[in-house]
Design a protein that fits this description.
The complex is a heterodimer of chains A (118) and B (117).
Chain A lengths: L2 E3 L4 E5 L4 E3 L2 E3 L5 E8 L6 E7 L6 E3 L2 E6 L4 E6 L8 E9 L10 E2 L3 E6 L1
Parallel strand pairs in A: 2-12
Antiparallel strand pairs in A: 1-4, 3-9, 5-6, 5-10, 7-8, 8-9, 10-11, 10-12
Chain B lengths: L3 E4 L2 E4 L5 E7 L6 E7 L3 E10 L2 E4 L7 E6 L2 E6 L8 E8 L2 E2 L2 E2 L3 E3 L3 E5 L1
Parallel strand pairs in B: 2-13
Antiparallel strand pairs in B: 1-3, 3-8, 4-5, 4-9, 5-6, 7-8, 9-12, 9-13, 10-11
Classes of the chains: A mainly beta (118), B mainly beta (117).
């Protein structure tokens, strides 16, 4: 069965510091997708990124970057020069069993609460 | 953007009463999901649907039932609410397709906060 572990329950940093959120996953499938979602204090869930299991290239989007390493089953998320608006709960998630168009939902980690102090 | 409307957004009810949460989508997506979010547990899948009248159980389905009689509506029912079902409930639709394969990417509704006294 698939599993996603976010070991950091809460992280607090001062604005402008860099911060990395860890995500470790378990799956038996060779084809799977990894995701990060953001949940700001307002409560909505916002999609940040999707990465498939065959693409280990790191991705950068502005101050956000993601490091996918199959060797360690990790998909870590780094925010560079953090800002107060980055304060949120961040969820890592995994989907598998997608061949043939089926989709039985995402498995989420428990989330990391990121607090950026001014 | 996919449109999802959840109703009600907030509800307070008493133990033992039935509750139905509604998820309505406007873009004819095939897959729909109900999750609950609780502190310390993240989001957990309750039930999902892969078409009209086609549903399946998720990780935490006990005490919940679902129905999908139309593509656009996915209902979550608590037949007899308990305090342990106090939670925030999110509906989601699957929106990610790549080379005709569903990638699993979900778009979420705004959530429904349910309090069972």
């Amino acid at each position: 069965a698939q599993k996603v572990t976010q070991a950091q329950t809460e992280i607090s940093v001062v604005e402008k510091e860099d911060v990395t959120l860890d995500c470790v996953y378990e799956t038996r499938d060779t084809t799977y997708y990894l995701f990060w979602y953001k949940q700001p204090p307002s409560g909505e869930l916002v999609f940040l990124i999707r990465r498939n299991s065959f693409d280990e290239q790191n991705e950068i989007s502005g101050r956000y970057s993601w490091n996918f390493q199959k060797s360690t089953s990790s998909f870590n998320f780094t925010i560079t020069a953090s800002q107060v608006v980055d304060s949120a709960v961040y969820f890592c998630a995994l989907s598998e069993g997608l061949k043939g168009g089926g989709a039985d939902g995402l498995t989420f980690g428990k989330g990391t609460h990121l607090i950026i102090q001014p | 953007d996919a449109g999802i409307t959840q109703s009600p957004r907030h509800k307070v009810t008493e133990t033992g009463t039935p509750v139905t949460l509604r998820c309505h989508q406007t873009e004819n997506h095939r897959y729909m999901y109900w999750y609950r979010q609780d502190p310390g547990h993240g989001l957990r899948l309750i039930h999902y649907s892969y078409g009209v009248k086609d549903t399946d159980k998720g990780e935490v389905s006990d005490g919940y039932s679902v129905s999908r009689s139309k593509t656009e509506d996915f209902l979550l029912t608590l037949e007899s609410a308990t305090s342990s079902q106090t939670s925030v409930y999110f509906c989601a639709i699957s929106v990610g397709y790549r080379d005709r394969v569903n990638t699993g990417e979900l778009f979420f509704g705004e959530g429904s906060r349910l309090t069972v006294l």
